[in-house]
Specification:
The chain contains two helices and 19 strands. The protein has 329 residues and is mainly beta. The protein has a 19-stranded mixed barrel.
Length: 329
């Protein structure tokens, strides 16, 4: 079995802390699939504090005989994301994909750095006249710009991603299309008799600088997972996951930053009451207590309730609740 990607190391423990909690949100997820194989995923949530509503629509289509995957996603921030990938065609275990993020009403791609593109601008200003009050404006140091306008548009593109998996090795790499110098991300994970070692690096070719330098070491034995990591030589973290029995899962996380000397510690658990219901709980060293309850009402309908209690300021209020409904057909 191929090892996980670097970003998925310790995923079992993180799922115990993250899944099933929707603090401060009213959330609705709907998933459907057509007879032709097109998958639709619609998601929306409302923030209880700000009242802001966010929604997204995602479509996926697979051509299995050619290993092609197409996906497109749009959200209420008017951001359009598209991805096309080819898997196990060029080389067994190799996946090549291209994705891009585009904001239609501005022409801008969401990215840390600008990509290549073009811009066109045009300005026109008619000659000022006395009737327009140009003389008074000139005396007051103002210019008449009522008829001046600028048109501009910028078109950009996305990035290429590759992933190769083998029984003992997993390698991932991606780079954005930037003529001034791409930002390259690469990672690799190797496994041997349950031990996992991974390395992740990010290189800014424009500045000739390494922007991320991370290392991870762990052990996986099915119902027990140990994960440790060092990020940029300054942040140290660890995760422990244990499936105690068929119903109970537990996890512990610990992190320490050398720069701020800040330590974070948390414990979490998930317990299956039966095949249709489960409860979750977690607590951290800031006395924040998270509780969750998930119930499968019927096939394709799941309700999740969660709450976050601030133990340090219990009487002051400010506690949060979350409600999520998942529909699947």
């Amino acid at each position: 079995m191929a090892p996980p990607s670097y970003s998925d190391l310790g995923k079992q423990a993180r799922d115990v802390f993250n899944k099933g909690y929707h603090f401060g949100l009213w959330k609705l997820d709907v998933k459907t699939k057509t007879n032709s194989g097109v998958e639709f995923s619609t998601s929306g949530h409302s923030n209880q504090d700000t009242g802001k509503v966010f929604g997204s629509l995602e479509t996926k289509y697979k051509v299995k005989e050619y290993g092609l995957n197409f996906s497109e996603k749009w959200n209420t921030d008017n951001t359009l994301t598209s991805e096309v990938s080819v898997e196990n065609q060029l080389v067994k275990g190799l996946k090549v994909s291209f994705d891009g993020m585009f904001v239609p009403h501005t022409g801008y791609v969401l990215s840390r750095r600008p990509l290549f593109g073009y811009a066109v601008s045009y300005k026109y200003r008619r000659k000022p006249s006395v009737a327009d009050g140009a003389i008074d404006d000139a005396r007051n140091g103002r210019s008449n710009g009522a008829n001046a306008f600028t048109l501009s548009y910028r078109s950009k593109t996305g990035r290429f991603k590759t992933a190769y998996s083998h029984d003992r090795v997993r390698v991932d790499a991606d780079f954005n299309v930037d003529l001034s110098g791409p930002l390259v991300n690469a990672s690799g994970v190797a496994s041997y008799q349950g031990w996992l070692a991974g390395y992740q690096v990010a290189f800014d070719s424009q500045k000739s600088k390494i922007t991320a330098n991370n290392f991870a070491l762990g052990y996986s034995a099915g119902d027990f997972v140990l994960h440790t990591n060092v990020n940029d030589g300054r942040e140290f973290g660890g995760l422990i996951y244990q499936r105690c029995n068929d119903r109970l899962e537990t996890a512990v996380q610990l992190s320490w930053a050398s720069g701020s000397n800040a330590t974070k510690f948390g414990m979490g658990a998930k317990y299956d009451l039966d095949k249709d219901a489960c409860v979750r709980a977690k607590v951290n060293n800031q006395s924040q207590i998270g509780l969750g309850y998930q119930q499968k009402l019927r096939d394709g309908i799941t309700l999740t309730l969660s709450t976050l209690v601030d133990g340090k300021n219990f009487n002051a209020g400010g506690h949060k609740i979350g409600v999520a409904l998942e529909l699947e057909a």
